[in-house]
Amino acid sequence: MEGLPKLPGNDFANRMRQKHHVPQSFKYVNGYPIPVRPECGLGGERLNEDSIQFCPEPNGGVNDTVLYDPILTYGRVRHLPVKPYRPHFVLYDQKTLKFNAFFRQAVPESATETFRIRYVHILYFLEDDTMTVLEPTIENCGYPQGRLVRRGRKLKNADREEFYHWKDLNIGIDVEMHGYVFHITDCDAYTKEFLLSNGIELNEIELLPPDPAMNERSISQRQSFRHHKMYPVPDDKLRKYLEYQGKVLHFDCVLDERDREGGELMTYKLFYYLEDDTVSIKELKENQEGRDYFPMLLRKQKLPKNWKENPVSHPSIFLEKTDAEVSEYYSPKDLIVGTTIFVYGRKFLLLDCDGFTRCYYEKALKLTQPDRVRLDSSPKRAPRLEVPSYLGLGTPEDSLASYHSLVPKSPKKDVITYLVNVNKFLRYGCVLDTAHPEDKIRKFVLSLSLADGTITIMESSVDNSGIRGGRFLSPRKVWLPGCNPDEPEYYTAKDLHIGATVVVFAHRFKIVSADLYVYRYMQAYPEIFSPIAIDSVRNFLLAEGHLKDDLRRATEEEYQKLEQSDGPSEQGEVQKRLAGFQIGDSNGASPAPIASPRASPVPYGDAQATPFAEPPEHPCPHPIIPDEELRKAYHTNEPDELAIQAYNVPDDPTFSRQGSPKKGSKSVHFQDDC
What we know:
By secondary structure, the chain is α+β, with helices and mostly antiparallel strands. 20% of the residues lie in helices and 22% in strands. Among the domains are: 21-52, no CATH class; 96-221, PH-domain like (Roll), CATH 2.30.29.170; 237-311 and 324-365, Roll (PH-domain like), CATH 2.30.29.170; 413-552, PH-domain like, CATH 2.30.29.170. It has 15 helices and 24 strands. Helix 10 (516-524) runs antiparallel to helix 11. Residues 93-199, 245-365, 422-526 form the DM10 domain. This is DM10 domain-containing protein.
């Protein structure tokens, strides 16, 4: 069948097959191709070797001779592990063979030498079979050194184009590269181990020949050094620096300048650096109270004992002193506890030192430092701070705040008083108390703010007088005349009443009137004001007719008291007597009847008897009329005249300046029950 041509009818292929795909025979596991035995044939058909499962035994078993696995009898075959392949450049990466060699170099036209022996190192790199030649550096040799031959593959035989291999290198052979012949004398330990492990026997080690030029040079140097004079070195600065680096002697010292004006007793820290014999003095925090911060009093430098000593030839104006101009510096043996040292004219007393300093003096200098020096610690006298006088700039409170702190803070205000009395003012009418007649007609309104105690003065305009009016004084506190400017006293509500004089910047204002709120405020706080001030405001308001409701309320209260004290039989007579005392306007209008406590009150001047809300009770004065006046009015029918007198007490001509009634006049006085 194999020799038949592939023609129709010469093969046994299934013409009815529709699937012709080839089964997978390779797989990739972790990136590696692995062959896999196909489990089926073309198009998914079963293979011929699997057809045995369709040939069962007569007894229903399986043909054991075909499916028998010999591994069950003989076991698995142990395969040796295959070493992973490692490329040559990976196996010998960074591995180098080192050989010691020399070559002879001719020196023509020289009277002292004819040749030189130069020592080199031959390096062979196993990763790429390249070679290079390096020459170690010799100080002051007179010729260039370093890399003599570049790294690369070197020809062993140019005719055959053979290159040097590590198998060609051994001790005692000559290697020619670029016209130089290098003789190998030795190699390092790794090279020996590598060559011996690869079956190469090494020759015996040879000694390097001496270089005649270098021998003569060393002999001449020794002879010149022998005739050189040796002077003793007083101090080796490098040795001292390396030995005492970071070792510092610490001393506590004090500077006493109390003998001069403004001087104080101040403590400092003195440091002596053993590495270079320098001194520095450090400021302490307790010395910086009230002074500018500066960390060091003396920077790190050598401290001369006599700083005034200066040679005549030294230009001290232009140049600083050097070691040549200073005869002696301070040393550790000069720093003893209890002694005084001079630091550029200032005397410092050494009080104490630390433990390292004491140990250094005992071991190095064989000296024992004394104990700490105790000073008489007298208590510091606190300076007496006097408050400076007021200069007139701003307010005294602002000036005092700038005295208490460098950054002045605004004076504290009574916030509670301000919030309670905000937008509350006491207003008074004022005139100028002056000798100029043109100022007599000027009228002012003085407002006292209860929130912050400031006074504002506004001037009223007068027609055809040339006075425009407006603000005369902006809100500010006004001093009382004759007070101390450093502790000023200001005008308050108790200083303002009718008849009082207020001095504002040399202007004298006389209070001649007040509004009703001033009187109400006086009634609410009678302990603040004097009786004279309350009487003056009350008399003015009575004269102006602003206390009608108070008079009516006082009359009703008096009527109720009389009604409660007297019996019902006397009520008719009292009613008849008080019927004539009806209070009315001062212009002669019809008086309003006094309302009975049993009847509802009727507003003044209203014809209809319409009830109205009774005004809130307020402690106010009420008139008290003597009995003789009541009897006289009862018999003479003069109630209107007596009522008018009760309203116009201050303007009544029957009153004298001393407040006593004239002879034969009617008298009405008021009693304050508040």
